[in-house]
Structures are given as C-alpha cells and as structure tokens.
Amino acid sequence: MTSTSAGNDARAEILGRVRSALRAVEPTPEPVLAPTTARTLGDAAAVDLFDERVADYRAVVERCTAGDLAARVGAALARHDATRAVVVPPGLAAALGVEESALAAAVPGAVADHDPGTGAHLTPYDLDRADAVVTAATLGIAETGTIVLDHGPGQGRRALTLVPDVHVCVVRTDQVVRDVPDAVTRLDPNRPLTWISGPSATSDIELDRVEGVHGPRTLHVLLVG
Amino acid sequence: MTGTFVGMPAFPSAAREALADTQLRHNLAHATGVIRGKRSRLVEEVDADVAGGGAGWEELRLAGAAVKQRALDALASHLEQLEASLTAAGATVHWARDAAEANAVVASVAKAHGADEVVKVKSMVTAEIGLNEALAEEGIAAWETDLAELIVQLGDDLPSHILVPAIHRNRAEIREIFLRKMAAVGRPAPADLTDEPAVLAAAAREHLREKFLRAKVGVSGANFAVADTGTLVVVESEGNGRMCLTLPEVLVSVVGIEKVVPTFAELDPLLRLLPRSSTGERMNPYTSTWSGVTPDDGPQEVHVVLLDNGRSRALADDTGRQALRCIRCSACLNVCPVYERTGGHAYGSVYPGPIGAILNPLLQGTGDEQTDSLPYASSLCGACFEACPVRIDIPEVLVHLRSKVVDSHRGDRVPKPEALAMKGAAWSFADASRLGLVERAAGFSGPFLKRLRRTPLPGAAAWADARDLPVPPKESFRAWWARTDGGRR
Amino acid sequence: MRVALSVTCINDTMFPGTGQAVVRLLRRLGVDVEFPAAQTCCGQPMVNTGYLDEAVPAVRSYVDAFAGYDAIVTPSGSCAGSARHQHALVGRRASEKGLDRSLEADLADAPPTYELTELIVDVLGVTDVGAYFPHAVTYHPTCHSLRMLGVGDRPLRLLREVRGLRLRELPAAEQCCGFGGTFAVKNSDTSVAMGADKVRHVRSTGAEVLVAGDNSCLMHLGGMLDRQRSGVRVMHLAEVLAATEDAPAEVVR
Ligand code: SF4
C-alpha cells in the first residue's frame, strides 16, 4: 500500500505546523540518561530479589540446577495438569542446555510449532487447544520481577507464549539484571519483545488486581543456576 | 456501540448531576482510594532505595519529563526519523491531520482485506477520534477487548477514566451488563455468573477468545513510538493487547505525534514511571514492543497512522506544550478531589480529570462553552502536579488557559458580571486609598451581611446555599492599625 | 531586619483579628513588623480566575508597597504562593502588553515573601513561640501551603509546642477542602461536596477548633461547620500561636 496524495499533503502540513510551533524552541541533541540504581547488588542478591518479585505477582517460582532442569520442567507441567499437548518452540533443548532426549522424556506431549514437512505453523486454534508452552527467556529484571522474551531460539514466535493457558519459562540466573535501565541497554530493539511480569491480570474491576484474563493464567518460572 | 460525548453540558451542571449519584460517588471513592494507596507505597519503595544508591522518585520524574520534553522540542525531525525507521522495518506510514483522515485509513485497510470486524487494543487515541463509530458507518464492527472497554461497550456507556474506562461501575453492575449484553454480540455469559472479579474476568476471557482467534485485522494505539528504531510499545495488563498485536494478519496502529521517544534507551525512565503511576505496580503484566514486520511472527502487514488532530496547536502554546508530555497514566485523575467526586463523564471528553481539563482546550482551542468550562473545573490544589510522573504543571496550565478564556471575551459587547467585578477589584486594588474607600462604604456593620447576600456579585447565592457567611468585623485591619498605631496605642 | 506584614485583602476586610495576632506574635518573638498602608491585594483572585490584565494594578501596588523592606511576611499560604509563583507571570504579561513596562524588572528586586510559619521556623529559628491554648485542635494543611510552598510540617511543629493544646490528627488531611477561590462559587456543588468530606473528617476528630494557615479556606469550612451547627470553631494558626496565659485567645468565630 502506498501513501495517497492526501497523505502526502497531510505529511507536509503536519510537519510544517510542528516546525512553526517550535520556531523559538532550542532542541536538546543528547539523549537523556535516567539515573540508574547504582547500589552494589551482588548477583546473588539480584537473583534473590528477582525470585521474590516474580513471586509477588503470584507466579510460581522454583530454583533448580542445570542437571535437574529437564525433570523439573516435566514436574511443573504435571503440577498444572498440562501434559497432553505442550507447545515446544524450535531450539528449546539447546537454549535450555539439556539433551533433546531428556527434554522429550520430560515432555511426552510435545508439539512442535513448525512442521518441516508442510512448512506450516500451528494456527491460533491449535494453540488454543494446547495445555501449555515451555520456553527459555532473554533476560530477567530483578527490581520489577519481569521476564523479557525476544522470541529468538527456544522462545518461539509471540503467539506461542500467549494463547496456551500455562507458560513454563526457564530463566538462567546469569540472565538476571538489576533494573529496567540494565535491560534496555542489553535488548535488541529490532526484535519483537515481550515483557512479562506475572500471569495476565486486570485492575479493571474496582482497581483491584485479579490474576488471569487473556494471557496465560499460570506462569511457572524455573530459575536455573 | 459506545456513545459519544457530543453536546455535553458545561462542567458545573454535568458535575451537579454526577454528584447526586451516590452509587457513583461510592464507586469512585473506593477505586481511587485503592489505587492511590498502591501508588504511594511504590513511590515510597523507590525512595527507600535511595539509601542503597537508588535513583529516587523525583529524579526519575525529572528524567521522564526530560525525555518527553526532548522528544517534543525537536518533534518534526523525530517524526521524520520515526517514519524512516518504520518504513525500513517494513511498516507503511500514513499521516492524518484529523480524526476523519485517520478513521479513513483504518477503514480502507480493513476493507482491503475484506474484513467486517476488527479487534482493538484499548487506546485513548482511537476513542478520541471516534474510530468505532466511523468503522460502524462503514459496516465494520470494532470489538473492544480490554475488560473495562468491553464493559463500557456492552453497557452502551461512555468511558470515565483513562486507564479504567469503567471505573464508575462496581462489580454488581458489571455482572448485570455481562448477563444482559454478551449474548447479542457473541458467546453469552454463563448463567451462574457471580460478581467475583475473577469470575467476571473469566467470562470476558471466554467471550472474547473466539473473536481473537478468528481476527484478520487488529487495531491498536501505542504508548510510545521510538524514533531511532521504529519501535512501537504497548503497555497492558490482560494479554488482550498481545492477542490483537500478534494473532491478526494485519495490524493498524494509530499513534498521536506526541508519542515519540527519541531513542530506545530513553524508554527506560518511562517504563519505570508508567506502571507505578498507573496501576500501582512495579511493572504491568505485559509490555509488547515491535518494529515493523517480523518475518514469521505476528502480523505480516503493519500500518502506522501518525495523527495530529490538534496536537500541533497544543505544541504552539508555550505554556501548554508540556501537556503533550502526558503518558496517560491517570495518576492525576486518581488524586484529583474534583474527579473523585464528579467522575469522568462530567468532563464531556474521553480525556477527563486534570489532564482532560487542560488537554481538551489545548487540542481544540477555546471558544466553546463546554470546553471553556474545563479549566475552571479545579480548585488548583496541586495534587495532580505532585502525582504526575512527567511533571506536567497542570495548575499552571489551568491558570494559563483560564486567561485564554477570559481574553477571548475581552471584545464582548456585554461583559459578564464577573468581568465587571474583576474590573472593579482591579480599580480598588490599584490604590490603597480606593480600597479604604470601598471598605468604609461597605460599612462593616450589621447591614453588610444582608447587603452581601443581595449583592449582584456573581456567586453570592451559590456560596450561601450551603455555607454561612462569616460575621463581618466592626473595623478593618487597616483602620485598626491607623487608630491604634499598630496596637501600640 | 525590616519585616513588612502583607496582611492580605481578605484578612484586612474580613478577619482583622488574624493580622493583629501576627503583629502580637512577631513582636513577642522580637520582630517589630510594619504595616505599609499602601498595600492592597496580591492579585491572586484575578490571576486564578484568568484575569491577568486586571491583576496588574494589584501586583504593582504589592511591589510599590513593600519596596525597601528586607522581607514580607503573610498569614496566608496561598498569597505567599501567589507572590512567589504568579507575580512573574503577571509581570511578563504586563511588559509584553505594555500595561506596565517596568513591573517585571521591579518584581525581580522585590523582597522575598514568607508564609508566617516559614518566617518563624526558618528565619527566626523558633518552634516554641511561648503560646498557651488549652483546647483540642485539629490542623488542616491548606493546599497552597502544602504543595505550592512546601511548608511541610512547620505548622505542626509549632502547634506541638503550644502549652495545653491537644492536637488531634485529621484524617485525609492533605485533601483539598474545596475552597479554591472562585471555584467555590463557579463550581459550588463540587466545592461543597469536597468541603462536606473535609468537615466530616474534622468532626470525626472531636476537636473543638479547626486551625489552618489560610482564612479563605477557613471561611469556607467555617461556613459549613456553622451551617451544620457543629459547635466546631475555626481559627487561624496565627491566633492560636499568639495566645498566652496572660492574653488568652477568645475562641469565637
Ligand atoms: S498528566 Fe501526568 S499524571 Fe495525568 S495522565 Fe498524564 S502523565 Fe499521568
């Protein structure tokens, strides 16, 4: 779709009005750097804070070791009774650092998003029928208890972590940063990003928070390392 | 279909009606009280961090204000940069001078895909331009998917809050609306629906899911638009936003030109300020960012409509310009004593509360009775400025806009009684001897009170309706000082 | 230090007792405050209603009346706020429109305006002013004192030192009382609704006297308290602080 001539007129007119409105205003060329939380929070303290703050949103948070991980993924799915159809994004085993076979054993109901034979992806309806999704993450933000996905390998396209009702998300302790400014400098803005802070929720009824609307109603975080 | 605000009465009379609704006042006092408490606890948490080297809330506010001000101060070049980066990322950029142009773009995109419905993320700007009504005229249904917007849409109601458009409704009323209205537009509410918020939220989930899964076209606004990367940002809670942004094949985002943030890193203070100010959370459940089209992920056709609709007019106002920093957090509404008592409808606009009282006149200009009443809908108590995360000095802008309203009437052939009274005051305050004269003429004795009640001074009756007038003194201060030499005699 | 009293137009005409209390109190604290008779009004009623041109003569009279003093003290948070935050605006407009070309420059040379408690606590460094007031009191921090000036807890620190005074905490104290100048009549329904909540909170404290640093807010609240026959009296903070065992305050108004 190309811009219409009316659109071109609009563009010129808007930019013209904006320029004339700001004739006398001096621009600030340098980006504004917000103050960052300069406290000396050791890594362990950041991870503890992340753990606590994610749990504050009434997400499930469990710590485990790398060796344990595959089994703990299986246990998490079982705990939420979400074992029959579990969406598994491409590259998950590698991203989690577990053997393909160990993952397959832990997630017997695994459903791949992408069918290499037909080239097709799961439809929204397929995703709606799935019980759960298991993914890796890009980073975690301690201060706000936020997980960020950039939907790269092991995280899947955005719809995968949205439509199924249970999201089991694996975050490595070395992915935890302190606060939002640490996150924005590490993230790639050209990737689509999803920042997740707890299960879906609403404050729309009398401004009180209720967990569970359209996104996954259960968020289960496995903190590895 | 959601109603419109056309033909609303001026604030004082709309407020009188709202004040008489005790249920409304109860709902508002409860909801704003809850959110004020949550917000202030988080502000304290941020400030408590200062001891450990944290930033402190005021420093964050300064940074947030500076980022938005920097974006506005060179808005034209930031917009050009935004357009270039969006286009490079595969998006189609449209420009719209006004509501009609923006609505036409959305309708033509939907029609090009043969869509007779779109799913919508809650967005203030699409409410501002009346998109739903415009699409309905073209035979396209616009489904609101945010819970509060859904409540408003199903209830054939008007939004009354920026963040929670159905804040005027309590849980029992919401249950009633769901039971009566859901069936006509899709999956009915379960017959055993209770008024538990979790149960109501679950009913909304079931009702909207079929619409999300089949949607071809999604419509959104954006909280921020990053100029250097072409990244749009949507901040939300429920996941309805993610549904609309990811499942449809086509996405149209209507973005006010003031939403620009120069660089991606400068999102930082805003993402720290917004959720704490808005829902009183450290972070909202979901924030989505996307830059144009991502192959094999989400909509493969992405449109962005850059909308003026009065923003360049507001930008030209040196004092009012700061209002365009607004990130629509609604903190100013939640702390406003006027809003808390009248609710949002009295403001006659999708932008109610303190920000609405300045934004509407700035976007539309003065001259209309309803709009001109808005800058006066404030006691200038300053709670809004104190709460605003981007430090918009709302009281300053209110006073400035009052002067614009007054100035627009300076040429009137028959001046208002108030204008005459102010002229009289100006005369007597020019010179203390004149003021003394006025004081002596007033008498400072029994008849003064009676005369004040019958005075043509505007508002005397409005005052005396619920408030006794003070008993006037026998002698003014200046007369006392002169008589006693300041009490020394 | 030569300190001038800006008594404010409303205190001059309606509440002279407040001005007299300020004079007594400051003399007791060693400041022989003067009253320049040329003063009229700070211009706030006009500015806040949008009549900037009409505020020019008032601001001019303020500048002229107080020229040459070291400091101005006023028993009103909102008039102090007006002098500190609004006069520059009026001055700029007066210059731009040619209404009073030298006003802007003269304002730059004007002495600083202090709200009464700022002068006592910050300039004089006193919190115990030697007052005696044997009553149950609640204090409403008016908006302009609280938010425009940031007087903080200075008034409460002063009240806590008053002998015999029983201070009752006011619920939702920081909420506006609903006066707001011409707001009280332009939006009288909303103003009264706000005042009603404030009055309810005041009455819930069981205090005999409601104290504040602004008589305009007290006129509004006192008017409602009287209409309700509540028996709660309103008094300006200055009158409480001026009261002593030898010269007790009359709890009237
Ligand atoms: S004016 Fe400030 S407080 Fe009000 S909605 Fe906008 S950003 Fe929030």
Secondary structure class of chain A reads: alpha/beta
Quickly name the level 1 CATH class of chain A. Answer: Alpha Beta
What would you call the quaternary organization?
A: heterotrimer
Using the 3D structure, state the CATH architecture of chain A: 3-Layer(aba) Sandwich
Could you tell me the radius of gyration of chain C in angstroms?
A: 18 Å
Which chains share the greatest interface? A-B, 83 and 108 residues
Output the strand order for the largest sheet of chain C.
5-4-6-7
Helix content of chain C: 40-55%
**H-E string of chain A:** HHEHEHHEHEEEEEHEEEE
Tally of structural domains of chain C: 2
Q: How many distinct beta strands of chain A? A: 12
User: Could you state the order of secondary-structure elements of chain C as H and E?
Assistant: EHHHHEHHEHEHHEHHEHEH
Average the pLDDT over all residues of chain C and give the rounded result: 94
Taking strands numbered 1, 2, ... along the chain, how are they ordered across the largest sheet of chain A?
1-12-7-4-2-3
Number of domains of chain A: 1
Instruction: Report the bound ligands by name, code or SMILES.
Output: iron/sulfur cluster
Walk me through what this model shows.
The complex is a heterotrimer of chains A (225), B (489) and C (253). In chain A, the strands form three sheets. A six-stranded parallel beta sheet of chain A has the order 1-12-7-4-2-3, with helices on both faces. Chain A has a four-stranded mixed beta sheet with strand order 8-5-6-9. Chain A has one domain (41-224): NagB/RpiA/CoA transferase-like (Rossmann fold, 3-Layer(aba) Sandwich). Chain A contains seven helices and twelve strands. Chain A has 225 residues and is an alpha/beta fold. The radius of gyration of chain B is 26 Å and the shape is globular. In chain B, the strands form two sheets. A six-stranded parallel beta sheet of chain B has the order 1-10-7-4-2-3, sandwiched between helices. A four-stranded mixed beta sheet of chain B has the order 8-5-6-9. Residues 444-454 of chain B have low confidence and may be disordered. Chain B contains 24 helices and ten strands. Chain B is α/β, with parallel strands linked by helices. In chain B, 52% of the residues lie in helices and 10% in strands. Chain C is an alpha/beta fold. Chain C has two domains: 2-123, no CATH class; 136-242, 3-Layer(aba) Sandwich (Rossmann fold), CATH 3.40.50. Chain C contains 13 helices and seven strands. In chain C, α12 links the parallel β6 and β7. Chains in contact: A-B, B-C. Chains B and C meet through α1, α15, α18, α19 and α20 of B and α1, α2, α3, α4 and α8 of C. The complex binds iron/sulfur cluster. Iron/sulfur cluster binds at residues 162, 277, 326-332, 355, 387-390, 392 of chain B.
